[in-house]
Amino acid sequence: MLKGDGRLGHDLDPQDRAPQDACGVFGVWATGEDVSKLTYYGLYALQHRGQESAGIAVSEGDRILVYKDMGLVAQVFDESVLSTLRGHIAVGHCRYSTTGSSVWENAQPTLCSTAGGGLALAHNGNLINTAALAERLPPGATRSTSDTEILTALLANDANDRERSVEDAAAELLPQVKGAYSLVFMNEKTLYAARDPQGIRPLVLGRLEQGWVVASETAALDIVGAAFVREIEPGELLTIDERGVRARRFAPAEPKGCLFEYVYLARPDTTIAGRGVQSTRVEIGRRLAREHPVDADLVIPTPESGTPAAIGYAEASGIPYGQGLVKNSYVGRTFIQPSQTIRQLGIRLKLNPLREVIAGKRLVVVDDSIVRGNTQRAIVRMLREAGAAEVHVRISSPPVSWPCFYGIDFATRAELIAGSLSVEQIRDSLGADSLGYISLAELTAATTIPAGRLCRACFDGSYPIPIEEDSLGKYLLERVDA
């Protein structure tokens, strides 16, 4: 069977990758359920969080079986594969790499042996003390170059060396792990879940009729028919087996949830901290309209990332909302790479203007963020060529000026357009008639979460967990291994 490469449309322009989240994780403990298919559908719901590889680990109680490969969830798994993955416990993962290359060896779940059997682990986030953790392992202890396998190997070693339960080993190890981690892991009989003390990446618990589900987002609970129970708390470790769910705190909670989840990363039908992401994004658009009004004829989104905020902007401004750009939903789902001639068309592979809608109109174009600016620059040019009289760009996040070290593969500060240019310089670079970003204060207010409980580092450079320069870099472990 041919395997797709899992590329998204933005990969057609390698100079302008959109923000990428580390991964989506999913776990289920359920008797009498087809857990591999539940996990497949859960990962399908989380596909937006990672498109490079996908994997599922299952156990019937006596051994763990893992299947993973490069590509999208629907490309990696089919009926024949899922039919071989039987059991009552499963852990699933869809990956976007933030530590380690995008290769099969770094696909998840990772699997290690312990004295009592196996240990499979899936991770969303990014560790910032990976090099220090790797030094605790003997040479050759891992085969991949991901922070996730380092963590899995340490957990397995701690359980082996001290003849401790996986739960006790995790409770002792996790306080020594620095960075962002939402974990779902399992041995042959038990499902575990843990969230870092800052709770940077989301993780939720759901209830099935005969079991339990853990997932990165509530949307994944919905798709498998699980009822939302609660968010897993920062610094909390859950153990799930036939006795139910047991909670254990391994570190004091210091909540710093990622603000960018509200802007871009999470699905609009997900709920974070009791508030729907869609309603938050619409409210951001309303506030953006009040902060940056303009005389215009039509508000259009950059599909689909700018749609909720564009709806809010139109509502608050009184300017009609419309669709001025059509998106090709299938771009990037092909095995054929574009030729240089096609590549030069750039954004037109993904978006095309509705000329009869925009010709002669003064447009407000709403998008969620600007990273390098290449995509927005191409859109402005395309709209002008299609006859737009004016193009006013409005962005539903503040300028992204700082890289993220907690699970979003942002560019370095030198590559971020807002890292070196002022708003007016960015406007000039885009060729827009005006440019307005929502302020950090208004974005934060739209979430209803106090600023002190959010990580806003990509906007203000204030990192909640201190960063050590020598522990950074996507290819850190590959340099060590070289």
UniProtKB/TrEMBL annotation:
<feature type="binding site">
    <location>
        <position position="404"/>
    </location>
    <ligand>
        <name>[4Fe-4S] cluster</name>
    </ligand>
</feature>
<keyword id="KW-0004">4Fe-4S</keyword>
<dbReference type="GO" id="GO:0009113">
    <property type="term" value="P:purine nucleobase biosynthetic process"/>
</dbReference>
<dbReference type="InterPro" id="IPR005854">
    <property type="entry name" value="PurF"/>
</dbReference>
<dbReference type="GO" id="GO:0000287">
    <property type="term" value="F:magnesium ion binding"/>
</dbReference>
<keyword id="KW-0658">Purine biosynthesis</keyword>
<comment type="pathway">
    <text>Purine metabolism; IMP biosynthesis via de novo pathway; N(1)-(5-phospho-D-ribosyl)glycinamide from 5-phospho-alpha-D-ribose 1-diphosphate: step 1/2.</text>
</comment>
<dbReference type="InterPro" id="IPR017932">
    <property type="entry name" value="GATase_2_dom"/>
</dbReference>
<feature type="binding site">
    <location>
        <position position="305"/>
    </location>
    <ligand>
        <name>Mg(2+)</name>
    </ligand>
</feature>
<keyword id="KW-0408">Iron</keyword>
<feature type="domain" description="Glutamine amidotransferase type-2">
    <location>
        <begin position="23"/>
        <end position="243"/>
    </location>
</feature>
<comment type="function">
    <text>Catalyzes the formation of phosphoribosylamine from phosphoribosylpyrophosphate (PRPP) and glutamine.</text>
</comment>
<feature type="active site" description="Nucleophile">
    <location>
        <position position="23"/>
    </location>
</feature>
<keyword id="KW-0411">Iron-sulfur</keyword>
<keyword id="KW-0479">Metal-binding</keyword>
<dbReference type="GO" id="GO:0004044">
    <property type="term" value="F:amidophosphoribosyltransferase activity"/>
</dbReference>
<keyword id="KW-0328">Glycosyltransferase</keyword>
<feature type="binding site">
    <location>
        <position position="458"/>
    </location>
    <ligand>
        <name>[4Fe-4S] cluster</name>
    </ligand>
</feature>
<dbReference type="GO" id="GO:0006189">
    <property type="term" value="P:'de novo' IMP biosynthetic process"/>
</dbReference>
<feature type="binding site">
    <location>
        <position position="367"/>
    </location>
    <ligand>
        <name>Mg(2+)</name>
    </ligand>
</feature>
<dbReference type="Pfam" id="PF13522">
    <property type="entry name" value="GATase_6"/>
</dbReference>
<dbReference type="InterPro" id="IPR029057">
    <property type="entry name" value="PRTase-like"/>
</dbReference>
<comment type="similarity">
    <text>In the C-terminal section; belongs to the purine/pyrimidine phosphoribosyltransferase family.</text>
</comment>
<dbReference type="InterPro" id="IPR000836">
    <property type="entry name" value="PRTase_dom"/>
</dbReference>
<feature type="binding site">
    <location>
        <position position="455"/>
    </location>
    <ligand>
        <name>[4Fe-4S] cluster</name>
    </ligand>
</feature>
<keyword id="KW-0315">Glutamine amidotransferase</keyword>
<feature type="binding site">
    <location>
        <position position="368"/>
    </location>
    <ligand>
        <name>Mg(2+)</name>
    </ligand>
</feature>
<dbReference type="InterPro" id="IPR035584">
    <property type="entry name" value="PurF_N"/>
</dbReference>
<dbReference type="InterPro" id="IPR029055">
    <property type="entry name" value="Ntn_hydrolases_N"/>
</dbReference>
<keyword id="KW-0808">Transferase</keyword>
<dbReference type="GO" id="GO:0051539">
    <property type="term" value="F:4 iron, 4 sulfur cluster binding"/>
</dbReference>
<protein>
    <recommendedName>
        <fullName>Amidophosphoribosyltransferase</fullName>
        <ecNumber>2.4.2.14</ecNumber>
    </recommendedName>
</protein>
<keyword id="KW-0460">Magnesium</keyword>
<feature type="binding site">
    <location>
        <position position="258"/>
    </location>
    <ligand>
        <name>[4Fe-4S] cluster</name>
    </ligand>
</feature>
